[in-house]
Design goal:
The complex is a heterodimer. Chain A is an alpha+beta fold. Helix content of chain A is 51%, strand content 15%. Chain A has a six-stranded mixed barrel. In chain A, helix 2 packs parallel to helix 11, helix 9 runs antiparallel to helix 11 and helix 11 packs across helix 13. Chain A is elongated and about 115 Å long. By secondary structure, chain B is of the alpha/beta class. Chain B has a domain of 152 residues: 3-Layer(aba) Sandwich (Rossmann fold), CATH 3.40.50. In chain B, the strands form two sheets. A six-stranded mixed β-sheet of chain B has the order 6-7-8-3-9-10, with helices on both faces. A four-stranded antiparallel β-sheet of chain B has the order 2-1-4-5, with helices on one face. In chain B, helix 3 packs across helix 4, helix 4 crosses helix 6 and helix 6 runs parallel beside helix 7. The longest helix of chain B is centred in the C-terminal third of the chain and has 18 residues. In chain B, 50% of the residues are buried. The chains are: A alpha+beta, B alpha/beta.
Chain lengths: 507, 228
């Protein structure tokens, strides 16, 4: 009868003790597994985020360069006025060069660019229908679209905000769920060059407008051209969520006054100079982790003194930061439980060896090798471990799910609160990652929808998918083996030191 | 078979020895009893002869070889069977499994032979049902028989027993001593028994008395038969 059979006989004969040992080991393994599951789920979530939570590049006018140029002009004028006191200095204006669509098309051909959406913002006056008027200075702020690229309000704005897009589905305000089409259809690339529009529900209700109706929009009068009236066709009605509230400056238009058109029509309203241009173009990068290399390649295709191309992988970074804290927590669980489990099992083994010193003494007296006695204890614990792994695998899913919910909720609260802080401070900056961790904060030129988009992305990750795989069970077995090996090693000292004479003779 | 050369033992102080410079010879086919008062060192002597402890000075030779040279564990595994006063059976096993374990550890020629083990137990009066019961369910006398059977099944030529008749009535004590004599005479083993029981000791072929640190023959061993 070899040591394996002795181990089995011992476990079978002492069923109660074996059951207790299995329960203790199963409890240890359960928490190790929960930690491993959380860790694995968090890693999967980050990997999924790379493909599902898109990163974008935004091509727009280089505001920094424009401001610099304006400051230089002011300094030049100031010097001129010092030398020639008769000259009356005129205040230089901020000149933003609109993005050329040809540049955008070049960038769109880069590998890694999935799609792009052109954004043109302007305003017009309602003709034959009434815009919604807000009686107080405070109004509901729209999550996206309305003021892209402007960063403020024009003095000569009309009562209707025109948001020209390539397609409504690609516009942030629609993709993040802030706006939803309730009637008719959204704008598609087929609408480029047409005069089809999508209006907000409240505006439609106030003016008894329905899909198929036509309305008139009057372009703003400029120095070069007189106001011109255009009859447009309503192809869809959208509903804007009013959950996102913020203080808006005086003179701001109600969000319901935003009418979505194709960017070509928005350019028409802007004037002939705006033809084939855009305020900004947002490119969706297929793999967020490659956003930097795509950005680098895109920069080579544009005049960086006039245009800037900024990355916005805030959603990805936010998910990554959130999951990083989950991973960190899971790692701590795994190691703490593993260490505590090792100590507990080591103590149990030491007690077990003390309790069975007569048996060990007899084995030694019969001439059994100490190594084989240790191997017998190892076999006993191995059987216990295998049963415990089976039990913990059955319960690990449940514990992992519950723990995952708690941890993700806590991580999201922490990340969101940090990101909101970053948003307030940064103004036009994208939400930053966890404070002090150096997470990048991508610039979001004039697009306030980014925050909502990030939160939507976070919500997508709100439930960690903890699923037990063979790999998890394998890893758990490795952990378990390491734990029992250390525990046995600690307990083996008792076997190695034991002198059979002291135990057996004269007892 | 077994010899001691200048065997000495003390605990802490060399001058306060238990025995000193013992020269003894134990032959096969003879049963030996070591008797003496409590504390005279009988158990220590037997533990040295069984390879459970190392002498402080001198050496023990088995078939002319120092038992420490080949390793005490190896000596116990192949050459000695020990019967303990407290039986020291594996309590989570049946009587049969106890014997099978001993056969396996000692690499006996009968390793794995259940029939042989059952025959031995049967010879010692255990029924088949009792053989398969957990040893804790057997009576003290039955457990003692199992312990003796465990020593008998192994191929070891030397059998060492520490107070094998302790707490036994006279009838049982006689029966046990008869078994040991049977081991020596029928199987040709060298049997060394430590006992308090003077009557039991008298049944052995030779009796050694340990008194005042001196070991003297109370009953001289018979001259072993010459083997061709």
């Amino acid at each position: 009868m070899n040591f394996v059979k002795r181990a089995w006989l011992n476990l079978w004969a002492r069923k109660g003790r074996s059951a207790l040992l299995i329960l203790v080991t199963a409890a240890i393994m359960l928490f190790v597994l929960a930690g491993l599951l959380l860790r694995s789920a968090a890693n999967t979530a980050v990997a999924n985020a790379k493909s599902s939570v898109g990163a974008t590049l935004t091509l727009s006018a280089n505001r920094e360069a424009a401001f610099k140029k304006m400051r230089e002009q002011m300094e030049d004028q100031s010097q001129d006025s010092d030398s020639d006191s008769k000259t009356t200095p005129t205040r230089p204006s901020l000149t933003m060069t609109p993005v050329k669509l040809s540049d955008a098309e070049k960038i769109a051909k880069l590998s890694g660019i999935e799609s792009y959406n052109v954004s043109v913002s302007t305003s017009a006056n309602a003709s034959g229908f009434d815009a919604i008027e807000t009686s107080t200075g405070t109004s509901i702020m729209q999550g996206g679209g309305g003021f892209g690229g402007k960063g403020g309000f024009e003095d000569n704005s009309g009562d209707i905000t025109i948001s020209g897009v390539s397609s409504t589905a690609g516009a942030t305000a629609f993709s993040d769920g802030t706006n939803t089409i309730t009637k008719g259809r959204g704008l598609t690339s087929d609408d480029i060059g047409t005069i089809n529009v999508v209006v907000e529900t409240e505006l439609a209700k106030q003016n008894d407008l329905a899909v198929g109706d036509t309305i008139k929009l009057k372009s703003l009068k400029t120095d070069d051209a007189a106001a011109k009236s255009y009859t447009v066709t309503i192809v869809g009605i959208y509903k804007a969520k009013s959950s996102s509230t913020a203080q808006m400056g005086p003179g701001a238009s109600d969000p319901a006054n935003t009418i979505f058109t194709s960017y070509s029509f928005a350019n028409t309203l802007k004037g002939s100079d705006a033809k084939n241009t855009a305020d900004s173009v947002i490119f969706t990068v297929s793999t967020p982790s490659k956003v930097d290399s795509v950005q680098k390649a895109a920069k080579k295709l544009i005049n960086t003194s006039k245009f800037s191309i900024d990355s916005n992988d805030a959603s990805y970074q936010m998910v990554k930061a959130s999951m990083s804290s989950v991973t960190s927590f899971a790692d701590k669980i795994v190691w703490l439980v593993a260490i505590a489990g090792t100590i507990i099992l080591a103590l149990i083994v030491i007690l077990m060896i003390r309790e069975r010193r007569f048996e060990i003494g007899v084995l030694l007296a019969l001439g059994e090798r100490r190594g084989k006695i240790i191997a017998q204890f190892f076999c006993e614990l191995l059987v216990v471990l295998l049963v415990a792994i089976g039990l913990s695998s059955a319960g690990g899913q449940f514990v992992g799910d519950k723990l995952g919910e708690q941890v993700v909720a806590s991580a999201q609260t922490s990340t969101t609160s940090n990101s909101q802080g970053g948003f307030t401070r940064g103004g036009g900056q994208a939400p930053s990652g966890e404070q002090g961790q150096g997470a990048p904060s991508g610039q979001m030129p004039g697009n306030m929808g980014g925050r909502t988009s990030s939160q939507a992305a976070m919500q997508k990750q709100a439930k960690l998918s903890t699923r037990i795989t063979l790999k998890d069970v394998g890893l758990l077995t490795v952990f378990g083996l390491a734990i029992i090996l250390i525990a046995i090693t600690a307990g083996a000292a008792g076997i190695l030191r034991l002198q059979p004479k002291k135990v057996l003779i004269g007892s | 078979m077994l010899e001691t050369k200048d065997l000495s033992y003390w605990y802490t102080n060399k001058d306060d020895y238990l025995f000193k410079d013992l020269d003894l010879t134990f032959d096969a086919g003879i049963s030996y009893a070591i008797v003496g008062e409590s504390g005279t060192g009988k158990t220590t002597l037997i533990s040295l002869l069984a390879g459970l402890d190392k002498p402080r000075a001198g050496k023990i030779l088995f078939r002319g070889e120092d038992i420490q040279a080949s390793g005490l564990s190896n000596f116990r595994r192949h050459h000695v069977s020990i019967v303990f006063q407290a039986y020291n059976l594996f309590t989570y096993m049946s009587a049969l499994e106890n014997l099978m374990t001993a056969l396996s550890i000692t690499h006996s020629s009968h390793n794995g032979d259940r029939q042989y083990a059952m025959q031995m137990l049967s010879k010692l009066g255990l029924t088949e049902e009792q053989m398969k019961q957990n040893v804790q369910r057997l009576s003290g006398g039955q457990q003692r028989r199992v312990a003796i059977a465990r020593a008998m099944v192994c191929d070891a030529p030397l059998v060492v027993a520490d107070e094998p008749t302790g707490n036994l009535d006279e009838a049982n004590s006689d029966e046990v001593m008869a078994l040991f004599n049977q081991l020596a005479h029928d199987q040709g083993k060298c049997v060394i028994i430590v006992t308090h029981d003077a009557a039991g000791a008298a049944k052995c072929d030779a009796v050694l008395r340990l008194k005042h640190r001196e070991l003297t023959w109370q009953k001289q061993p018979p001259v072993p038969a010459m083997v061709d």
